[in-house]
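ok so dumb question maybe but i'm new to this and my supervisor (M.) told me to 'just get the structure for Solute carrier family 15 member 1b' and walked off. so i did the thing. is this what she meant?? sequence i used:
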Amino acid sequence: NHNKICGYPISIFFIVVNEFCERFSYYGMRAVLVLYFKYFLKWDDDLATTIYHTFVAFCYLTPILGAIIADSWLGKFKTIVYLSIVYTLGQIVMAISAIHDITDTNKDGIPENMSFHVALSMVGLSLIALGTGGIKPCVAAFGGDQFQDHQEKQRSTFFSIFYLSINAGSLLSTIITPMLRAQECGIYSQQKCYPLAFGVPAALMVVALIVFIIGSGMYNKTAPQGNILVKVCKCIAFAIRNRYRHRYSQFSQRTHWMDWADEKYDKLLIAQVKMVVKVLFLYIPLPMFWALFDQQGSRWTLQATTMDGDFGLLTIQPDQMQTVNPILILVLVPIMDSVIYPLISKCKLNFTPLKKMTVGMFLAALAFIAAALVQLQIDVSVTNIKKLTMGQLVKPNSPTHILIYFPENPAAVPIRHWSPGKDHQHAGQTGGRLSWRLKFSLQYLIVCVLFHRFFNGYSSILNITTGTLDFGSTVKNKMSTYANVPHGEAKFHIKDNAGNQCDYSLTLGFGSSYTLLIPSTFKFGTNCEKSINTALDIKPNSFHMAWQIPQYFLITAGEVVFSVTGLEFSYSQAPSNMKSVLQAGWLLTVAVGNIIVLIVAEAAKLPDQWAEYILFASLLLLVDFLFAFMAYFYTYIDPAKIEAQFAHSDPKDKEKKKSLEMGRKDSDGNSNSDRKSSYTSHNEKKDVQSRM
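this is what came out, is it supposed to look like this??
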């Protein structure tokens, strides 16, 4: 590769643009995914959370497959191209699955065949998980391959730019994609524009693929040289089998169980595997951290849907709150490195990497305690409005109604309809389960249209609709059916049998309940809406989204001291040609963490969301204590010194060592010299945990 600009290979610019577009595509799609499950596919919170974390788990399991394919079969370039095609198809399928008009045969805005949309989405997500995970370990390594050995400085700068492109793509996508989702689009009826929210990431993935292929002739393409991860797994498997065969007392014991691989593998490899296994043992408690961390895109986003997103001139969408994390990352990483850590050093405190990770897990637990406190305030802000107990007497001054949403029964339950001048007592329509724990937990409003004053003046049957919701035909002195209307600007269309129509607009806040009174003096025509009276029965939930910022701050601070430190520690405690093995183990902890979430979400079934947050916080604190105990007995090592002991021991081992070091640069595209720049860059955000 002789084509250069300012000393840099031209090919790396194609790789950086490709990475920007791919990360925009992935994080943009993921930002709106849980809301797509909830509001388009009509899944409840638990199922939406379960499928979301199942998808994320697969995204962090498939990189191991991608690395093996690239190193042992296709090579990095072909692996990236082929799996990017799979990835692009997945994004396109997701965009198609969100088009409600495909199965909306009666043109009422409601898909008739929801199973079709569910099936398409699952196919799309499966392809995306295979694609994004498969190319994850290849792109950065392929970029590193473009540099010669003497270009260490340029390679280091490349990785800084590379991670900056990752952060730029993920940050912009989590801002833009929710804005696209909030638009309304459709052929027959206007709905939230999920096709656009998924379509733009799909288009960016097409661009990423085209840009990467355009640079094909300029790339330095290294041939597959075998995967060190496979060799390590074979060595461990042989040691376990050999130890099992010699489990009886007549066989002499060996110092370490890996020494049972000595019959087949050289001492240098065995020593390297011992160092890796020692680090991987410390990985065992780590999935619990990721179980909490990745709920920013599921539970915390769902929590934001129940809060007020009005920031004055801006209205923040619930899924846009996720942008707080990347913004804080860019602020906190340099502060930690330039201010906090130096201050701790001046205080003569030995703040070792394992101690930093322990603090990171503790901060994540505090974040979920903060989330639980926010959830309690959300619940109180609704339930304090109408605290009901059995036998309570209510004497309203105007026509009103009370609606209670039961968490275990996702439907509005009418308690009693009131008439002025009369006392009413709560009866047992709800099975005697009225208590202070009743709450609204969906992003919907309970709207009742009451024709109490319509009895004497108007004799025509009226039909009232808003969007795709139909209140049904309502006769005089009768009440319409209840309807759940999304928050925001609602437009009601009132028609009579003669075809006369009146449009009435009302801005609705989450958790509120309104009574719309159509009086006897109501007349169709100009200014007809002015004669309609509005009574606010239950105030909207006004607990602000800004209260989520403390929990985001805590989880991000935890991420900075946990994730960056974790990888830095890992690579300092194992040979550099084993970096791909440690990266695979690290990604596996992320996958297992997401599996923990879906297990807890399905198994715990706690009645209150705040209790689930406390459960996760308690589990992480318990695991944090276990990790601190394990870290206390850990002895830090110098891998180079251990390797040096075997460098001159056996001529055969020298030849084996030479063959083993083929993974030293090829394992992740970085030489030993740029280890720090590629994994602890201040620009690193999402991929601070090797999320490339």
